[in-house]
Amino acid sequence: MPASPDTPRPGAAARLAELIRLRTVSAWYPAPDRADVAEAFAALPAVLERLYPLLHRHLEREVVDGTGLLFRWRGASPLEPLVLMAHWDVVPAPESEDGWVAAGWDSDPFAGTEGTVNEEPAVLGRGALDDKGAMVTVLEAVEDLLAEGFIPSEDVWLVFGGDEEVGGRNAAAISELLRERLQSQGTEPWLVLDEGGAVVPSPLSFVDATCAMIGLAEKGQAQLRLSASGAGGHASSPPAGSPIPRLARALRRVERRPFPARMNRTTAAMLAALIPLASGAAGRALPWVTRSRSVAARALGAMGGEPAAMVRTTVAQTRLAAGTADNVLPSSASAVLDCRIAPGQGVQDVLADITRRVADPRVHVELIHGQDPSPESPAAGDRFEALGAAVGTSWPGTVPVPYLLMAATDSRHFHAWCRHVYRFAPLRMDHAQRASIHGENEWVSVQSLSRGASFHRALITGRGRS
Ligand SMILES: [Zn+2]
Predict the structure, then answer these.
(1) What DSSP character marks residue 274?
(2) Ligand 1 center–CA 23 separation, angstroms
(3) What global pTM score does this model have?
(4) Predicted confidence band at 340 (pLDDT cuts at 50, 70, 90)?
(5) Which residue has the higher pLDDT, 204 or 455?
(6) What's the rounded Cα separation, in Å, for the pair 34 and 24?
(7) d(Cα 209, Cα 310) in Å, to the nearest integer?
(8) What's the CATH code, domain 12-218+375-465?
(9) Cα(131) to centroid of ligand 1, in Å?
């Protein structure tokens, strides 16, 4: 019998705390002076084996590309498997020494503390939400089902990358491996689920309800370098059109002309799901506004911040470099733009558009790195319904809402060959908790761990019943 979603498997919090104590900071690995980090990376697979013995007895494990962990749980059929993803590397956090608490944190980020936050039992530390907590919800669900003798109707693959925060080569290699294996059998994953959205109270200012924000797509990225050059020379007799003012004018033109707000299928689906949940004046206006895609796009665009980023390609000016001395004209000046690309545009479109906006042949625009936005997975149909049903079982009263992810996840390596890629970690994350990801005082409630495991149980067992 499945336990109530609020009854954790005994020890789940302690298991997450133990994983947090392993300093698997991918940005510090490999580094010659960090033997402890290398040890943590080497130790984690063995620690998982000790914490989840049934999973390691019944599932086949492969280590791919050094730190990628791939598990196969054989079901009654190998076709259309379920792929559950997470990553076990984390971003850096300040390190505590000799009992001193790390700067900005209320407790040691790598102590793996069990305590309380806002009077809720919690696990604190780097990775509690991103993404060891999410990985633990998958592991707990599988271990629990194995203890009951459950056999899935189709294969379940678990994909746990150890380098997501530094590029995700593990997931890329695993995706390639799975593609070869599954395509040779003429099949593809039924569903790929990775981190991304979460259970979010009041996801937009005009929504009072708690929503399961399920990422259908993720934005692309283009990092561009703008550079201007000139003769340089003594600052006492400056010529016109030297690099700094030329570059500054180009940056100002880019700043003044943002990309237009355009509705995309995912954000339109989000608004449609939010209509019944919206309150106040916005609640009254939303049904009207959403009748016209362009009006809705402009309304979100006018809100600024995250709502605006859902409907347009954003441009952040992130770096600026010029000059070597106070009294010397520089011979060059450069700036970096970090553009996050909305669905419907590609890297080359953004490069061409920015070049047009710069409107100066003497300012060179070049692409440093680019990734097109992902395709948009369907906001309806059996996969989205299965996710919604699992949310209903584990997070009663929470409404599944499609949404566009601003960040990149490991799942981007799958969308080239899988049609149903979704991004959702079944953990509650309020506003402060979302800010704590890659920030300070990251924590997850013990209730979230329990409900998250219940979500994965429901997802894994649900297909057999359909
Ligand atoms: Zn992550």
Answers:
(1) H
(2) 15
(3) 0.93
(4) very high
(5) 455
(6) 11
(7) 20
(8) 3.40.630.10
(9) 5
